[in-house]
Amino acid sequence: MKPHTRPPRGTTAPRRRAAVAAVLLAATAVLTAPAAAAEGPSREEIYRELGVADQPVDYAVLVDTSGSMRTKGRYDTVRSTLRGFLGGLSRSDHVALITFDDRPEARYVGSAGDPGKIVGRLPKSPDPDGGTDIGAALDLALRELERSDAASVASVVMLTDGRHEPPRSTAYPKASGAPWDALHRRAEAVGTRAGLAGYALPLGSGASGAGQLGKVVRDTMVLRPGSIQDLGAYLRRAGDSTRARSAARLLAEDRGKGVTATWRPGGTRDLTTGSAEAAVTFRSAAAHTPLTVTGTRLTTDGVPLRVSGVPDRMTLAPGESRTYTVRLAGGVGGDGLPFRRTEEGAAALRVSGKVASPWQRALAPDVELRTPGTVAVRGRPLTARAETGSVLFLPALLLVGAAALALGWLRWRSVHRPSLSGGLGIAPVFAADTPGWIALSGRRVTFQQPAGGRGTVHGRRRRTPEGPRVDLLIRYAREGAGGRPDRVTCAPGAKAVVGGLAFTHRPDGPPADGHAPEGSG
Question: Is residue 279 classed as helix, strand or coil in its secondary structure?
Fold first, then answer.
């Protein structure tokens, strides 16, 4: 049995720290995996969805075959890594493989479908005495990209380890000047028709002519691998960037296009019961990009309604329309009048929520979708109606009015037509005859004198410091008199004269032998 040995001092703590770090990393991976999945698809998934691989791209690949490329196995590395780069292209892509030293030469022009065949066209070794004519190589590359059937996306990939050092017979004797300006104008013309970009990979550690590509192609990226062994990774970056530009050109159609919402037509909604159903249609105007609306909330202007039935989050496929049946709650008219009537109003739709594309995170910063962040409302407002107020209000109002009139009339009658009592003596003012008497009863008495003339008697209730009393209002018109009758007021138990007649009131009634003039109660 082997004796137990203690680990060397200083080894236990690092192991423990490593174990703890491993656990933390594993836990982080578990916790972040769902979040990463929720962020959206990867670029590769988006490219497959868009069919970017099916969108043809032109590649002009310029390979330096000057003598300096033999240093440190640079040329052999270029040959091997180019195979991997070309293997990532689509069969629909067009490749022009051009070598350049004292002069450029197109080694292969055609489909990118066979990487082995394309790389096999490269010379086995560089020209030991060859110079580096970058200008002539770019001239040949542009001629290839200027063909009539060129693709809408183009890339120039240049791999060189030297400066621009052309032979004397070149059209580009210097690194600048009119010939280079002419190349730049041609590249601008190609870029106007197609999305043209350049990728320059300087392979040497010293000064390089890779920057010359930027003088010709405006959109040029100079990739600087740390060593020739990094070439494969940088070539893949060039390919990825080209695919991103291809996707950007395809998605340019969706720039500025978002989600719209409309009421679905369907007549007037009846809100008499306080609620009704309607339908709202959400539509994506994008042709290629899925769009997501989060925090969705519907309100209305005009007729204030509560709208429910739309999910908080929805994702619309390109061009998709989705209709939701919603519940409207609320009423029409807010004047508070209680009588029964029909009210109508317009409910203008308002939608709040954030619009974005689940693709944006994966495509940024190479592709900016510029999706409008809010839902745009289209179409006409919804017409809503409701029967408001109570059907009993008008009958109740009429009943109350009739009761008020009745009470008012009773009140008026109790004041202006109180019940009469007692007797009223009537005699000429200067006559010595015994007056005739009439009994007062009811609320109005009419009398007629034998000598002619007619009159009426009714009461009127008055308030006095001594208390309430009923005065007699006597109207009398003599025979043959025109105009309005004469009138006089006689207090209880008092005497009054009007029209030549004296009227005497007896509260206890006429005497038993009193002569009664013609009259009626």
Answer: strand
